[in-house]
Amino acid sequence: MSLSDTLTEDLKTAMKAHDKVALNVIRMIKASLTNERVKLGHDLTDDDELTVLSRELKQRKESREEFAAANRQDLVDGLDAEIALVEKYAPKQLSEDEVKQIVTDTVAEVGASSMGDFGKVMGAVMPKLKGRADGAIVNKTVKALLSK
């Protein structure tokens, strides 16, 4: 079942259950997917859908951090529920150890030895981890390995 079909089915379920949070999140994801399809001018590939889901998840996580810093627990709680729903549709995230292993392998593949090779490593590793790892974690891991 495609992501679009899954979202449509879950939207129906949320409507029947009167789940306003789920309704809002699913509608936002569907709108983002539609906007991306219009922007690209063709049907979305799995990678395109993954990009949209990653963007939605990242926006919510950044907002959550800002609300937490401002001591707005009411908004943080709402975003926690939204993040959980978006994560339901995104692929399972890799652990930091799994990310470190992939980054280590990639550093060896490209022959990187210093921070000057940072861009080369990031360019090679991000397609491997697309949607399965937070870019900030990948960035931190690459910097740690190259600064040794």
Automatic annotation (TrEMBL):
GO terms assigned for molecular function: carbon-nitrogen ligase activity, with glutamine as amido-N-donor
InterPro entries referenced in this protein's UniProt entry, alphabetically: Asn/Gln_tRNA_amidoTrase-B-like (IPR003789), GatB_Yqey_C_2 (IPR023168), YqeY/Aim41 (IPR019004), YqeY/Aim41_N (IPR042184)
PANTHER family per the UniProt record, alphabetical: ALTERED INHERITANCE OF MITOCHONDRIA PROTEIN 41, MITOCHONDRIAL (PTHR28055)
Gene3D superfamilies to which the protein is assigned, alphabetical: 1.10.10.410, Uncharacterised protein YqeY/AIM41 PF09424, N-terminal domain
Name recorded for this polypeptide: GatB YqeY domain-containing protein
The organism of origin for this protein: Secundilactobacillus similis DSM 23365 = JCM 2765
